[in-house]
């Protein structure tokens, strides 16, 4: 039973967001790392993200039942009763808010609540009616980078804003690749995604544009003096390769051939980026 409750928290989404928290937290910590604050931030945000995923699962039961990759989820198969999941989601969400408010700071708590609201009450419903749901959802997915930064500084500055938009560009590339890979599933669920409404070719072009924006934004972090040329040289190697693959994807008629590669590269890119900003801040 416990594994079913763990499943509806979507651990892979939580892990992905923890990567963003770690990078921004370590960058802003520089030479004064507070281990207790670090753990409190990760735990608090993870619980709120887990709560948002539980509610997302509850709202999407009918949609998930129509898609091959989600038809065996615990709530779809009634391995967990909706009321139990509802209580579980409320409990871990409140616990996460309390941890951030009591052990981190109110700004980080407030940002996490905003992320929860965007994901559960806007994105989850908007994907049924608008092709721009992914863009709105990316705001929620970028907030953990802000929280990791504000947990240390208790303020929002230009660098944290840059991080926020950088991860929006990254997420759009990442999620648009997913929307191509699983396009048939999304069609069965009657979702209004960009790849369905505007076509795969246009989605591929937008992936290229977003990766280009991501790459240029990385340059800006160095040119504005936040990160070194050491960071820029290393991150550019992977970024330009990612951009090159996205260009090849536009020319490729087989929609899965490079879209899968773009997706897996996006995971490597975000881990590498956050590792570099954490390390670069100590050099």
TrEMBL record:
Q: What is its EC number?
A: 2.5.1.141
Keywords noted in UniProt: Cell membrane, Heme biosynthesis, Membrane, Transferase, Transmembrane, Transmembrane helix
Which compartments does it reside in?
Cell membrane; Membrane
Q: Give the pathway annotation.
A: Porphyrin-containing compound metabolism; heme O biosynthesis; heme O from protoheme: step 1/1
Q: Where are the transmembrane segments?
A: 12-29, 35-59, 79-100, 106-126, 131-152, 158-183, 207-223, 229-250, 262-279
Record flagged with keyword Transferase: yes
Q: Which GO terms describe its biological process?
A: heme O biosynthetic process
- Topological category with respect to the lipid bilayer: Multi-pass membrane protein
From the UniProt record, which GO molecular function terms apply?
protoheme IX farnesyltransferase activity
Cellular component aspect of the GO annotation: plasma membrane
**Highest rank taxon of the organism:** Bacteria
Enzymatic reactions: heme b + (2E,6E)-farnesyl diphosphate + H2O = Fe(II)-heme o + diphosphate
Name the Pfam families on file.
Answer: UbiA (PF01040)
Q: What else is known?
A: Carbon 2 of the heme B porphyrin ring is defined according to the Fischer nomenclature.
Name the family the entry cites. Belongs to the UbiA prenyltransferase family. Protoheme IX farnesyltransferase subfamily.
Name listed for the protein in its UniProt record: Protoheme IX farnesyltransferase
Report the source organism: Buchnera aphidicola
Give the organism's phylogenetic lineage.
Answer: Bacteria, Pseudomonadati, Pseudomonadota, Gammaproteobacteria, Enterobacterales
Gene from which this protein is expressed: cyoE
């Amino acid at each position: 039973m416990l594994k079913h409750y763990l499943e509806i928290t979507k651990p892979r989404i939580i892990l992905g967001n923890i990567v963003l928290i770690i990078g921004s937290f370590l960058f802003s910590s520089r030479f004064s790392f507070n281990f207790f604050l670090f753990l409190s931030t990760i735990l608090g945000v993870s619980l709120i993200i887990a709560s948002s995923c539980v509610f997302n699962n509850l709202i999407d039961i009918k949609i998930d039942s129509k898609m091959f990759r989600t038809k065996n989820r615990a709530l779809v198969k009634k391995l967990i009763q909706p009321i139990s999941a509802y209580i579980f989601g409320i409990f871990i969400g409140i616990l996460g808010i309390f941890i951030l408010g009591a052990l981190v700071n109110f700004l980080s708590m407030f940002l996490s609540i905003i992320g929860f609201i965007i994901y559960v009450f806007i994105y989850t419903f908007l994907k049924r009616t608008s092709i721009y749901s992914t863009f709105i959802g990316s705001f929620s997915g970028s907030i953990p980078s802000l929280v990791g930064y504000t947990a240390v500084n208790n303020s929002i500055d230009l660098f944290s804003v840059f991080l926020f938009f950088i991860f929006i560009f990254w997420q759009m590339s990442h999620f648009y690749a997913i929307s191509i890979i699983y396009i048939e599933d999304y069609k069965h669920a009657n979702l209004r995604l960009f790849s369905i409404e505007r076509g795969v070719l246009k989605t591929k072009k937008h992936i290229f544009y977003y990766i280009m924006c991501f790459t240029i934004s990385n340059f800006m972090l160095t040119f504005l003096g936040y990160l070194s040329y050491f960071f820029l040289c290393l991150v550019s190697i992977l970024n330009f390769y990612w951009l090159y693959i996205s260009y090849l994807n536009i020319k490729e008629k087989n929609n899965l051939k490079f879209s899968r590669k773009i997706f897996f590269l996006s995971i490597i890119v975000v881990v590498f980026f956050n590792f570099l900003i954490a390390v670069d801040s100590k050099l």
